[in-house]
UniProtKB/TrEMBL annotation:
This is DMT family transporter. InterPro entries: EamA_dom, EmrE-like. It is found in: Membrane. One of its GO terms (cellular component) is membrane. PANTHER family: ACYL-MALONYL CONDENSING ENZYME-RELATED, SOLUTE CARRIER FAMILY 35 MEMBER G1. It is a multi-pass membrane protein. Pfam families: EamA. Belongs to the drug/metabolite transporter (DMT) superfamily. 10 TMS drug/metabolite exporter (DME) (TC 2.A.7.3) family. Keywords: Membrane, Transmembrane, Transmembrane helix.
């Protein structure tokens, strides 16, 4: 039996907390600016921070194949970011986060079609229950007189889960060809470059306070993903993956204290159904053959 050190578990928990703080910071500015500008400024800050980490770590410069691999993935990361920032701008933070927990099911489906990975019967059952959780959350929106059902927001959150999963599968397909630091840096650079033309065309000057929030978000995003990359390279993914669901707790607390959002009974129940479905359908006993994946940026 493989014994997992406590340190990767603690670092994973820290990484999830850091990224939850980044989500809250981005929610505070996502509705105030055009989407391309939100993405561009977030990844400009992330680019500066991740490049500094890259230089400090004395990583080898990526070659042409690495640039090609990571550019393709950056397009997916751009779609992930756009979907996520749209979702948190339109939905309560805890609700948006809970819908993105469907990502493991999309990962399994994409793994089957793109990598030929088998899909266990329990995973198929988990997908059914996961969709039921989404239905519960959506029903809660419709039953709340103060909160009209937001099809765009829900669709954006589900799209984020899909593109996040696709990014994960693309990392799996490369077989660990690039280091975590290189992946993080190139993702930030390419996403910024992709968003920059549209950002410049619709530029809206941000306030000094919002610039500080974007810089903080870039710092938190890079730090959080490096924490997860470090821990996932030192412990089985199955052991650490369930810790990522603690993001719902942090999103609920941050949403309450900073935005006055109180998760509805439907949101809490739906999130619990989705989390239970994910855990039960993907859980397995850690073994020496487990190959953890670096989480996507």
């Amino acid at each position: 039996m493989r014994v997992v050190s406590r340190k990767p578990i603690l670092v994973t928990g820290l990484g999830v907390l850091i990224l939850s703080c980044m989500d809250a910071a981005m929610k505070s500015v996502s509705a105030a600016y055009p989407l391309a500008e939100v993405i561009g400024l977030r990844y400009a800050a992330g680019m500066a921070v991740s490049f500094a980490v890259f230089r400090t770590a004395r990583e080898a410069l990526p070659g042409s194949m690495a640039l090609k691999r990571n550019f393709l993935r950056a397009v997916v990361v751009l779609l992930t970011a756009g979907s996520f920032f749209t979702a948190i701008a339109r939905l309560p933070l805890a609700e948006a986060i809970s819908l993105t927990f469907l990502a493991p099911f999309f990962t399994a489906a994409l793994g089957y079609f793109m990598l030929g990975q088998p899909v266990a019967s329990k995973l198929k059952l988990g997908i059914v229950f996961g969709l039921a959780g989404v239905g519960i959350i959506a029903a809660g929106q419709g039953s709340n007189a103060d909160h009209v059902f937001d099809l765009v927001g829900v669709g954006a959150a589900l799209s984020c889960a899909f593109f996040y999963a696709l990014s994960n599968v693309l990392i799996s397909r490369t077989g660990g060809a690039d280091s975590s630091i290189t992946i993080v840096m190139l993702s930030n650079i390419f996403v910024f470059l992709l968003a920059a033309p549209v950002m410049i065309a619709g530029w809206q000057a941000p306030t000094a306070a919002h610039v500080a929030i974007f810089v903080l978000s870039g710092l938190l995003g890079t730090a959080g993903h490096l924490c997860l990359a470090w821990s996932y390279s030192r412990a089985p993914a199955g052991t650490l993956g369930t810790l990522e669901y603690s993001a719902f707790v942090w999103a609920s607390l941050l949403g309450f204290f900073y935005f006055g959002e109180v998760p509805s009974t439907f949101t809490i129940l739906g999130a619990l159904v989705i989390i239970a479905a994910c855990v039960l359908s993907t859980w397995h006993r850690a073994s020496p053959d487990d190959q953890p994946l670096t989480p996507p940026v």
